[in-house]
Structures are given as C-alpha cells and as structure tokens.
Design a protein that fits this description.
Elements lengths: L1 H28 L4 H6 L6 H10 L6 H12 L14 H36 L4 H15 L2 H15 L22 H4 L6 H39 L2 H8 L4 H30 L2 H6 L5 H10 L3 H29 L9
Helix pairs in contact: 1-14, 5-6, 5-9, 5-11, 6-9, 7-9, 9-11, 11-14, 13-14
C-alpha cells in the first residue's frame, strides 16, 4: 500500500508541473490589466502604476515570474491576492469547506439515487422501468445546469418558498466556525437544531442541482457494469442453486461490478468538488468556484494560478483515494499495484 502511494505521488509531479504552466498562462491570456482592473474608473498615475507593477513582480520577464511562482509554491507560498492582499492559501482554505460541504452532499445524493436506479434498470432490462429510468438519466445528463438551477429556484424558492435562493445559513444564527462545515458547526450554536435546519435548507437545492449530472453518469455506469456481470457463468450457477434474485444481485453481482462504478465516482468526485463553478455562482455559494470566477474578473493573477494548482492537488488526492478503494473492494489488485 505504501509503495502504491509513493508511486502515485511521484507520477503526479509532471501533472502538477503541467497544471502550474497552464494556470500561469491562462490568466495572462485573459484581456485586461490587473492593476487597471484594481483601480477601476478612478484611474492610476503612471508613477503609481509602475510602483504597483514592481511590488507585484509584474515588471519582471514572464519566464522569471513563472519560475518565481513555482519556486514559492513548492514551499507552500502561493502569493497574496492583488485585491485583498491576503495570502491565497488562507483565502482558499477559508472557502474550501463550503465547496467540500456542497460537493460531498451533491455526490452523496448522486450515489444514493444513482446506484439503485442503475440496479433496477439492469434487473428489469428492456422493460418500461429500464427505458423510463435510463431515459430520465439521459435527460439529466444532457440538461444545462444553469437552466436546471433556475427552474428549481423558480419553483421551490420563488413559487413555493420552501428553500432560500442563496447563502449558506440564515443571518439570525451566530455560528462559531470551528470546521467551516455548517452542518457540523451549527450544532455548536445557541439553537443547534434550528441552525442545522437552516443550513440544510440552504444546502439541499444547490446540492441537488450539482448532483444531477453525476447521478445520471453513475446510474448508467451501474446498469452497464451490472449487466456485464449478470451474464457471467458464476451468476448463472448462483441462480441454479436457488438463491433469490436479491441475494444474487447484492452479494455476488454488485461487488464485482463496483470497480468501474468506483472509477466513475472517483472521477466525478474530483470534478464535483472543484468544478461547481456554475452552481456556486448561481446560488451565491461562498466556495472556491465563485471565488475563482471573481478572481478571473478582477485579473487577480495570484488567486487564479494558486487556486488552480491547489485544486489539482485535491484531484490528485481524490484519485489516490480511489486507487486505495480499488484494493479494498478487490484485494486481488493488491499485488499488481505494489
């Protein structure tokens, strides 16, 4: 297991190098000047402009700026925001719990609903159940997230008034941010149950929107993988022994079908945790996605290049956890990975 972790970490170094190069180049391809964007309509004198440029290191050659960024990043220094002057890593981890909470609940809903849908569709293959469930999942996969989010907001928030439109919790609750996860921190408030209920009300709608695409992918992969396993000889043998369909599917088939499902879940988890930009923007969710969009608009170079590199580290960590999960689900893979 230790050798597997070391091998994956070494293999991730070229990936991180490539991500750092792309992130550094990406923000510089965006039209606009970060210093002029910071001062806006007030304008800035030439003397002040040159002084700010020198302070930010933007007067140096681009190659020198890149290697300076990489060198500092290797020590954990991702620079300071041009706008707020706060360290990028501090702002990142201040907002990361909000993205973690939204992403994990969205993924939990996707797994909780997607896997049973895939199992039912596989067991009832070529029946109205199969066609309806897979047709619905295809619609969910193809649906534009921004449009789906606005439809749900109009129905549940505007018309019914069941869920808030934006934010993480009602301002009436004074929450001591211990973990940054309001579903946990709400229990340390003066009114824990009411604060927790408010946090759930704010979270459920954006989480469901975020879960839509991964839910459809998980359902379709579960169906495909389970159908392949159900055609194996040992499954027919299990049926001939008189085992119930539930026992055959849950005990024998599903476990062997889990490897591709876990692969998809791992890939989707990284995408959900770090790619919820549209969802966070629409719901004014104070996470990494919305922060990154604001930074791009402000041409805040350190935030964009630093946060993208940190996001890449998160995805690499998630993929490492997926590899370890493979071995737990199927121990026969242990020897081939050491």
């Amino acid at each position: 297991m230790f050798k597997l972790i070391v091998k994956r970490l070494i293999a991730s170094l070229p990936t991180l190098f490539g991500v750092s190069l792309v992130a550094f180049a990406f923000i510089r391809l965006v039209p606009g000047d970060p210093i002029l964007a910071m001062f806006g309509e007030r304008g800035v004198s030439e003397e002040m402009y040159l002084e700010m440029q020198a302070n930010l290191g933007l007067d140096k050659p681009v190659i020198q700026q890149y290697f300076s960024f990489v060198g500092k990043a290797m020590t954990g220094d991702f620079g300071n925001s041009i706008v707020s002057r706060e360290p990028v890593i501090k702002e990142f981890f201040a907002r990361f719990p909000a993205t973690i909470e939204l992403g994990f609940l969205g993924m939990f809903l996707a797994i909780l609903i997607g896997i049973p849908i895939g199992i039912i569709a596989a067991v009832k293959r070529n029946t109205p159940w199969d066609y309806t469930l897979m047709g619905t999942s295809l619609v969910g996969y193809s649906m534009p997230i921004f449009w789906w989010a606005l439809v749900l907001i109009m129905f549940f928030s505007v018309n019914k008034g069941w869920t808030p439109v934006s934010g993480r919790i009602s301002v009436m609750y004074d929450i001591n941010r211990v973990t940054g996860l309001l579903l946990i921190d709400s229990w340390f408030s003066d009114e824990p149950w009411l604060a927790f209920k408010s946090a759930v009300h704010h979270l459920i709608l954006p989480a469901f929107v975020l879960a839509t695409v991964p839910l459809a992918s998980i359902a379709r992969m579960t169906r495909s993988s389970l159908l392949e396993v159900l055609g194996e000889d040992y499954i027919r043998t299990a049926k001939s022994k008189g085992l119930t369909l539930k026992a055959v599917v849950v005990i024998h088939a599903l476990r062997n079908a889990l490897i591709p499902i876990v692969t998809v879940i791992g890939l989707l988890l990284g995408a959900v945790l770090t790619g919820a930009i549209l969802t966070e923007t629409i719901f004014s969710w104070p996470g990494i996605g919305r922060w990154l969009v604001t930074a791009v608009e402000a041409r805040d170079y350190p935030i964009v290049q630093g946060s993208i590199l940190l996001i890449a580290c998160v995805i690499i960590f998630v993929n490492l956890m997926v590899d370890i999960t493979y071995i737990i689900v199927n121990p026969t893979l242990r020897d081939s990975n050491t």
